[in-house]
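Honest question from a wet-lab person: if I give you the sequences of every part of a complex, can you actually get the arrangement of the whole thing, not just the pieces? Trying it with mine:
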Amino acid sequence: MILIKLGGSVVTDKSKPMTSRPEVIDRLAMELSKIPGPKIIIHGGGSFGHIKAKQYALHTGFTDESQREGICQVQNDMRALNRLIEESLRKAGVPVASIPAGAIATFDNGALASFPSDVFQHYLDIGITPISFGDVVMDRSRGISICSGDDIMLKLAADLKAEICIFVTAVDGIFPTYPPAEGQGPLPEIGRDDAVAFTVKDADVTGSMQRKLKLMFDIANLGTKVQIVNGLVPGRLADALSGKFVIGTVVRGD
Ligand code: IPE
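Yes, you can. This is the full assembly:
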C-alpha cells in the first residue's frame, strides 16, 4: 500500500485565504490515477485550514466559547477543499471515499489517541481509495486539537504497514542551506542527525517543519520508504509512484 500526502502548499496558495490550485489538483489526480494498486490519499489544509485555525487559536485547545464558530468554519472549509480534491480524483477515474478525521479521530492532550485505521483497510479491500485530511478533532483533555495530515500519515503507515509514503510538497526537497546556493539541489537523502535548513521558519497551527520532519523520521523507522517530492513539477509524483528516480529527498530511518 502506498500513502500519499498532498501538502497544503501544493493544493492551495498558502498566502491567499481559501484559494485552491485547481490545475495542480487535476494534474496530480491524473498522475495518481496512473498507478494501479492500493493507495490512501491524505491532504493538508494550506490556506483552507491554517489561517482561520490560527485566528481562532484552535491549536491551543477549547478555551473560549467564541471558538465554536471557528471550529465549524474550519471544518466546513476543510470539507470544501476535500470536495474539490475528491471530485478531481473521481473525474480522473479514481474511486474515492472521503473519511474526515474530525468524524473518526480523538486526541488526548494534543496527541492522537484513537483512530480507526481498519475503516481505511476495509475500503481498500473493495478497491476504493480512502481520502482523509487534516482537521479539527475532539481532544479528551483540551476539548479540541488540530490533527495534521502528517499525524494521519504516521498512524496509517504504522497500522496498515505502508510500503511507501510520499510527501508531495511545493519544494524540491530538504536543502542543506536556505535559500539554496546557486545550482544546489535538495539533499538526496537525510537522516535524523543531518543538518538541514527550512524554507519556512514560522510554525503554523500543526507545528513547524521540524515537527513534520520528525513525523517523517518516525515513519521511516517503521521500515517504510519515505520520499519528499515537488508536486508543482509535472510528472514528479507519477515517476515517484512508479519507482523511477526523481529529484527529491528520501528520509532515512535510524
Ligand atoms: C492542517 O493539516 C489542518 C488544519 C489546519 C485544519 P496539515 O498540517 O496537514 O496541513 P498542511 O499540509 O501543513 O497545509
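Two things worth pointing out. The pocket of IPE is lined by residues 7-8, 44-46, 49-50, 53, 74, 78, 134-136, 146, 148-150, 205-206 (CB under 6 Å). The two ends are 22 Å apart (CA to CA).
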